[in-house]
Structures are given as C-alpha cells and as structure tokens.
Amino acid sequence: MNPEVRDHYQAEFARIATRLPGAEVAWVRAARAAALVQFVALGFPTRQQEGWKYTSVTPIENSRFSLRPSAAPRVTAAQVAELALPGALLLVFVDGRHVPELSPLDLLPEGVRLTSVAEALARDPEPLRMLLEGAVGLEATGFAALNAAFLADGTCLYLAEDVVLDAPIQLLFLASEPGIATHCHNLIRAGTRSSAVVIEHHVGLGDEAYCTNCITDIALASGAQFTHHKLQQESAKAFHIAAVRVKQGQDSRFHSGSFALGGGLVRVDIHVSLDGEGAECVLDGLYLTSGRQHVDHHTCVDHAVPRGTSHEFYKGILDGASRAVFNGKVIVRPDAQQSDAFQTNCNLLLSEKAEIDTKPQLEIFADDVKCGHGATVGQLDPEQIFYLRSRGLDDAAARGLLTFAFAAEVIERMPQAALKQRLEALLRGRSPDAVKELL
Amino acid sequence: MLEIRNLHVSVDGKPVLNGIDLTIPAGEVHAIMGPNGSGKSTLAYVLAGREGYQVTAGEVRYQGSDLLALTPEARARAGVFLAFQYPVEIPGVANIYLLKAALNSVRKASGLAELDAMDFLALIRAKLKLMGMDEALLYRPVNQGFSGGEKKRNEILQMAVLEPKLAILDETDSGLDIDALKVVADGISSMRDAQRAIVLVTHYQRLLDYIVPDRVHVLSQGRIARSGGPELAKELERHGYGWIDAGRSSPMGEGP
After folding, report:
1. Is pTM, for the whole model, over 0.90?
2. Average pLDDT of A236-247?
3. Are A243 and A261 in contact (CB under 8 A)?
C-alpha cells in the first residue's frame, strides 16, 4: 500500500477512534484496531484482482476523505419527508450517523427490535460481538476492513420467530457533507418463519464528491421470508461501495432488488449463501447510467446444499460514455443436487460510447442440477420504433417509451407498491417530456 | 383520398415496385391482390413510411398533399393507418398505454382535446366488444404472448379506436381461423364509411367473401397487371395468379 494512503488512514484513526461508537468497550476497540491492521495489509482492491478487473478504485485511493463529518447534520424534516416512502418505518442516517430526531419510529410490533448500531453499542454491545469481530472474514476486501475499522453506525434489526412485519422498513442514508467517507453496517437477523421488507435508500444531497462504504449482513433462519431492496441515488460525483451478504437457512426465501440510479463510481457486491436445503433467492437489479458513470454489480450465489433455487434478473440501460459491469457468479457445490439456478442480464446501449462488460460465471460441481444463463446487449429495436411511430408517437416518444418499458420489466417484479411507485416516478422523471405525457 | 402515380421503389438497389398507378377515392374499399413477392407489402410499408425503401420515381398524394414527405408519425396523425401483417411485440408497454398514446396524439393533431380516463375507457370497451376481445388484453404488454388471431384483432381494435381516414390492412386475414376471420371482417366492415378509404392487401380471396370491395387490383412484378370489380377476385380464385401472368406479354414467355 502506498505509504501516504496508509498514513492518512492511520492518522484519521488516531484522530477519531475515541469518538467512534463503542470506544469505551475493550473488544470493540480491539476489533477496530485489528481491522485497521488488516486494511493496511489488504489495501484497496486493484485491477490485477480478477473481481476488480473492470473497476478501478484508484480515484477513491487518491482522495483523502475525512473519516468523520465535521458538523452536526444539516438536513431538514422537509427534505426527509420528500424522500420517505409512504407507510414505511423510517430510520434516517445523515453522513453515516443515525439521527433520531428525523426517525419518528412508531411503536414496533412485539418481537421486532430495530435500533441503530451506535445505540446498540452504547446500551448492550455484547450481542453484536460475534458479528463485528467476524465482520472481516478471510475473503474480505480492503473496503470491508475499512468499514470495520471506522464503523460509525448502521441498523440492527432482529425479528423474533413467526413475526410478520407488514410495513416496510426504510433505511434512508443521506449524504450532505462533501469530502467525507462514511462507514455503515446493517446487521439483520430474521427468526424462524419471520417476514419483513427492508429498503436501503441512499441519497446524495449535494453535488461534490464523497464516499459511501456500506455493508448489510442478513441472516435468515429456516422458513424466513425477507426482502432487501436497495435504491441508490448518490450524487453524480459520489463513490458508492456496498456489500450485501446473505445467509439463508432451510426453506427460507430472499428477494433482493438493486436499483442503481446515481453515483459516479459504484460497486455493489451481493453474496448469497444458500446454506439450508430448499432455500430460494431471487436477485433483481436495474442500473441506469449516463455521463461518465461507472456502475459495477458483482453477484454471487453459493448453492451449498440440495434443492436450492436462485433466479437472477438484471437489466441495464447505458447512455453517454458510461460503463457498467455485471458479473454473476453461481457456485453449485458437490452436495447441492437438484439445484435450480438461472441468470439473465439484458443491456440496452443508447449511445455508441457506452460500454458494458457482462459475464456469467458458473461453477458447477453437482450433476443433477438445472442451471442456465443468458446475456444480451443491444439497441432499441427499429421495428418496435416504427410500429409506435406508425401509431402517431414521434421518434423521441417512441424511443423513450421503449426505454421506459425496458426498465419497467424489472420494476414490475417488486411487490412493494410504495417502492414500485417511487421507482416509476424516478424513471418517468428521467424520460423525455414527450414520454412523461404518455405515462 | 389517395393518388399514386408512377411509383417506383427499390430495396437495397433492387427494384420492387415498377410504376404503380392507383387512385382510391374516399368511401371505397380497394383490394390489392397478388402472388408472393409481387410487391404488395412493400406498397403498404411505403405508404406508412417505413425506412429502408428508396422511392426512385413517382409520387403519392394523400388528401392533395405529398404523403412521402411526411414522417411515419405525421402520416398517422393525418389519418393514415397500417394494420401490420406481423404486429411486433412490445414487452413492458401495456396495450392500453399504446391505445391511449396513439389516440391522444391523433386527437391532438386534429385540434381535439385529449379524452379523459372515463371517456377513454368507455370508448375502448365499446371497441373491444366489437372485436370480441377480452378486457384483460388491455393490460397485457402489446402483442406479447398474443396468439396470431389476437394480434390481428388487436390491429383492427387500434384501427377502430383511431378511426383513420385511410386504412391499409396488410394480410390481416392470414393466419386466422374461420371464426376469427369473421370477427375481423365484421370489424373492418363496420369501419366502412363515406369519409374513409380502406385498402385490403391480401393474397387470398376469402376475406373478400365477407368484405366485398369496390375495386380489385392485381399486382404482379411490381406493377398493377389488372384492375376490375369484385368479380376479378373470383376469377383469380378460379384460375390462380398464373392466369394474370399468362395474360401479360411476359418477356420470359412463361405461363401455366
């Protein structure tokens, strides 16, 4: 690692460690210090590493982000109200720190515990010990180590057995201060047969560069049904590095949706381990890129035991000189007979300068399995455009409508009405005026 | 309504239409028949404004003005409608959205206000009934997963909603079973109107059993080889298209 980079992070750690949550707890301090050592050893990922071949994080390495916001949050209730999803339980984080005043949590149903990580570390840190000490595993990247060292906040959600939470939980992460890097970690455990929906929503409020490094860990007990949708609307110059790590018990069901609309340089890793028999996951995603955006999705589904199902459906619309990466890895281990894994990635290139690198990566070690993949890269279909024009729509409206429809196919798969409507509205907002009138 | 004079069209430099002359007055139904490759569909596409066709000579006047100078959407807004032989599937666009967008763009061009949701739905329901179509089809993506018959009905539904001045129906009868053919033919017949011209492009005579045309034109090798009344279609049915070519002084000297 470049010594200047190392010195920067070590200096930041020395400067703020005593003010980070859990600083008074010995094991927390030790875990952070260990993570920093690991970060220095690992460094930032480089393009020499297979998983980062198409994505350079040098701009992050070269930025000397401050690791702590300088001021108290300056976000108004009105700003929050505009972003809040109707009917959702809302937790608001500003620059990586939970803001209770902006998070008017109503009474939660029995069997649901929902707190910020900072609060959990202050009140009762012990239940988090295993999770945080083990946060940086063997396959961790420098970003995970950095997250563990500088962990500022996040969400702890615990669902007891058989608890069904109808209202979605919206975790709203607002970035207001330029030049800082924030590190949040969401820790979610869903008990046997429990059910809930979490919408992780990242929004940049300014237009300067900053960095979000966010991890979400989800553990599903047997029969649990869990939905994690991520709506990413970072600022155009923002860096967004995120990991979603899921462990699924027997017959559990997990639905992931990743909607990447913003950010300058974005990397999302979604890793699902099907650890219990009969577990099922659906991974949906949509990336809309323009200008010079770079958006990279790496998904990995690990079929470790028999009868697991994974269905993946990702679409991308690329404009300008933007670039997107989709790497869908599926591992079917020798014991994982009767696995059913399918993956689709479709891309629409609206500009000659846009570039997509799409790669299915199937590693199958069992023989009685059903696995498949398909990837497409293309432009709008001239036959469809002509058909619409022959019905009176002008060229721009026809193209806009077809582009909208291409994206809508993913949005329609979201069962949550509030999120679906929000996504449709965002998509409409990006459409040409001629299309807005139609929709 | 429509005047085609000496129309020559090439595709990739290869002549397909070699001097078409055709006049279709308002209020009439004309059938354009001909064997495969005679240029029927090319004529339909050129009138609708599809790309990929080079007009090398001649002109097309629609309501007195130059039709070929207009974009496809401008033609649609001026009242030209093409029912496609192979309607494309458009995943993600609900049928009802397309109907609404199409109707409003045509209405706007004629200086009419957009229909409100209630009036629009009432109109669509009436037309659906006419075509014997299920309302559920409105909410399915355009033509996606539709059977061949449903696609053709959907084209006629769009025509019924848009009420064009010039309707060109390209092989609308192909791929229909006898029941569907009757429904589609009834739908088309209901559109017969003194203000409207209808062009039926068809290979077979059977659609003309239900819709008796005012004039029949037979296309062969990119030219109109014969024109006549409805009896011409019957003769064709008896003798086949070879009869037309035999009647021409073909340089190849071929005939049945």
Report:
1. no
2. 97
3. no
